[in-house]
Specification:
Blueprint (H helix, E strand, L loop, with lengths): L5 H7 L4 H5 L5 H20 L11 H15 L1 H7 L25 H7 L17 H13 L2 E3 L3 H17 L4 E3 L11 E4 L2 E8 L3 E2 L5 E2 L1 E6 L3 E6 H10 L4 E3 L18 E10 L4 H5 L4 E7 L3 H4 L14 E10 L3 H11 L9 E2 L5 E2 L4 E3 L2 H13 L5 E4 L4 E4 L1
Antiparallel strand pairs: 1-8, 2-9, 3-4, 3-9, 4-7, 5-6, 7-8, 10-11, 10-12, 11-15, 13-14, 16-17
Helix pairs in contact: 3-4, 4-7
């Protein structure tokens, strides 16, 4: 026995030298190390530690929260001390506006990451669920993009929408929280135009929510397979996120506002207070009809200085709210139907130049209400105003 070397003696005792030299890591320690390695790779790729902020990529925000947790826990710092080539453990990257992760509960932490909290009995303390839950959810938010092999099929659609936006046939509107998304609709997300080419079959998530898988095409020739709820959240959180209106949607009007309705503006009917003899004589019949997406009162605030309003104050005699329609096309409908009643009036502007205002019509107010009703039920096509009978007639 005396002739045995140290190694042989340990072998006789059943002790593995390798095991002594390299202690086994617990599952939790392996997760912490793997998570920190992700942060190190982020530093190597971007040249800075991950930071908080709404303008940051969701993965960077995840890494920032994880790094704050690691820095705050002594056992994590000790475990990673020899695995920190960039000195990330000793430098605080939390700015004054960033919340202390140790003061956040589960829901607040998820909210800081921009992720909707899910009902669950367990918590996300000490990195336990950060990778398995939040990062998987983040991956769903972003969804990997790949080249769209049949993009030539969609290219003309994007080109047409661009033309429609320039001509005013389509418009952009802010995307409301939990607003609907339908197949064939266009959106603007992170500065890119997005087309929903397909909405898959609806299914129920593990949390009892309804969702669908979408095929989304981007105007740069890529596509992604993303969840409907994920696209909703991304559009709502993007301050520049927009819905592009569809010129063929309907109905044009509704008596009540539905959750998915998109308010497009207001039809306003004005009456001039001008002392022009012709206008004064027919004041109760002469009306200006327009459509605006802003505040009507602000629009007419400087009427007395604007030849469009006959260089006189005006009064609002009727308004109608619009939902899910294109304002430019609607205004053209009004002008087409009332064309026979457009007044031929020439006035001088503030500089003495002759001006012929448009959008003023010699028609009773109830005719406008009839037009609104016919537009609402889709029966306006083919009708025109007849000044002789003072009514709408079918051409």
């Amino acid at each position: 026995m005396a002739d045995l070397s140290d190694e042989e003696l340990l072998a006789e005792l059943g002790v593995s030298l390798e095991a002594k030299k390299k202690a086994a890591l617990t599952a939790e320690e392996e997760r912490i190390i793997a998570g920190f390695e992700d942060i190190c790779r982020f530093y190597e790729e971007h040249g800075h530690a991950p930071a908080h902020g709404e303008d940051r990529d969701i993965f960077e925000r995840l890494y920032a929260v994880r790094l704050d947790r690691i820095r705050a826990l002594e056992k994590c710092r000790s475990l990673l001390a020899q695995r920190d080539p960039h000195g990330l453990l000793g430098v605080s990257g939390t700015d004054d506006e960033s919340p202390d992760p140790d003061t956040l509960d589960d829901d607040a932490l998820l909210a800081e990451l921009g992720i909707e909290a899910e009902p669950a009995a367990d918590s996300i303390t000490v990195l336990k669920h950060v990778k398995s839950r939040a990062e998987v959810r983040a991956a769903e938010e972003i969804a990997s993009r790949e080249p769209c092999k049949d993009f030539e099929t969609f290219r003309p659609l994007f080109a047409q929408v661009q033309e429609d936006l320039k001509s005013g046939v389509r418009e952009t509107r802010p995307f409301g929280q939990e607003a609907g998304i339908r197949q064939g609709e266009f959106f603007i997300l992170k500065g890119q135009m997005v087309y929903v080419a397909h909405v898959g079959k609806e299914f129920e998530t593990e949390y009892g929510r309804r969702d669908s898988r979408l095929r989304v095409i981007y105007d740069n020739g890529t596509e992604s397979d993303v969840l409907l709820r994920s696209l909703q959240r991304a559009l709502y959180k993007d301050e520049a996120g927009r819905r592009i209106t569809d010129p063929t949607v309907g109905p044009l009007f509704g008596t009540t506002v539905e959750p998915d309705d998109l308010e497009s503006g207001t039809i306003y009917v004005l009456r001039s207070l001008s002392d022009n003899p012709y206008i004064a004589q027919h004041r109760n019949l002469i009306h200006k009809i327009g459509v605006t997406g802003g505040d009507v009162k602000k629009r007419i605030a400087n009427a007395r200085h604007d030849a469009t309003y006959l260089l006189a104050d005006v009064e609002v005699v009727a308004t109608y709210k619009l939902f899910n329609i294109n304002r430019t096309k609607l205004e053209k409908i009004f002008h087409r139907v009332l064309a026979p009643a457009q007044i031929d009036l020439m006035i001088q502007d503030r500089f003495g130049h002759p001006v012929q205002p448009k959008e003023w019509f010699l028609a009773p107010l109830d005719i406008v209400s009839q037009m609104v009703d016919k537009i609402s039920d889709g029966s306006i096509e083919g009708f025109i105003y007849d000044p002789k009978t003072a009514g709408l007639v079918k051409v």
